[in-house]
């Protein structure tokens, strides 16, 4: 899924000057951007902790899915059991890299073209999320 093009998405949600989304597309873009930031941070931490996630994987897709889920499960277990997680300290001290360049010379997928099916799914999700959000406001 992609953001709605030409629709703002950096809205201030809290405080006296809070800008509320004016339409479902703004709401979707705001939520999508937040979720993407959380996911990207999580994968940066995972890549710091687990070397196998730092480069392209040539395992079958089902193995890759299991491997990533296992890394997250072990990571969460470590976070629960350790008072101080050294990876979090290391991550917080490391400047964020917005665009990481591949180190192994492998070509990566840079863009994915939208399809009518995914556009329809995004539109339905957008309307549903906005309706739920409106109920709470």
Please supply descriptive tags for the structure shown above:
137 residues; mainly alpha; 4 helices
Question: Could you explain how this protein is built, in words?
Answer:
There is one protein chain. The protein is mainly α. 55% of the residues lie in helices and 0% in strands. It has helices at 24-49, 61-81, 86-93, 116-136. The longest helix has 26 residues, at 24-49. It is globular. The relative contact order is 0.14. The mean pLDDT is 81.
Helix content: 55-70%
User: How would you sum up the global shape?
Assistant: globular
Strand content: under 5%
Q: Nearest-angstrom radius of gyration?
A: 18 Å
Helix-strand blueprint:
Layout lengths: L23 H26 L11 H21 L4 H8 L22 H21 L1
Compact description:
Helices cover 55% and strands 0% of the residues. The protein contains four helices and no strands. The mean pLDDT is 81.
């Amino acid at each position: 899924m992609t953001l709605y093009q030409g629709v703002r998405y950096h809205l201030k949600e809290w405080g006296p000057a809070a800008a509320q989304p004016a339409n479902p597309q703004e709401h979707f873009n705001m939520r999508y951007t937040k979720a993407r930031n959380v996911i990207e941070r999580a994968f940066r931490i995972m890549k710091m902790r687990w070397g196998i996630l730092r480069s392209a994987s040539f395992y079958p897709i089902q193995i890759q899915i299991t491997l990533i889920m296992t890394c997250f499960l072990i990571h969460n277990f470590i976070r629960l059991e350790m008072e101080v997680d050294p990876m979090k300290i290391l991550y917080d001290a490391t400047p964020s890299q917005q665009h990481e360049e591949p180190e192994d010379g492998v070509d990566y997928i840079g863009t994915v073209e939208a399809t009518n099916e995914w556009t329809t799914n995004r539109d339905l999700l957008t309307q549903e999320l906005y309706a739920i959000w409106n109920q709470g406001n």
